[in-house]
Amino acid sequence: MPNGEMKGSFEVSLKELEKIVSELEKGDLPLENQLKAFEKGVALSRECMKRLEEVEKRVETLMVTPEGKISTAPFEAAE
Prior knowledge:
Elements lengths: L2 H24 L4 H28 L1 E5 L5 E5 L5
Helix pairs in contact: 1-2
């Protein structure tokens, strides 16, 4: 999957998730529609988290060795 496609898909999913959250916060939807929106929001949230985890695995941190050479190391997220 090309980087642009993943980014676009992630951003589209995130925008859709934000829209769902906004609609749910208003409380104007009937209960059944709220439930459907919530379920879709949970699915989108999981999808976004999965994409973030995939990207995190691919990120490498550039480091300079004591000899002045550039090396790479796997990205380790701060917890």
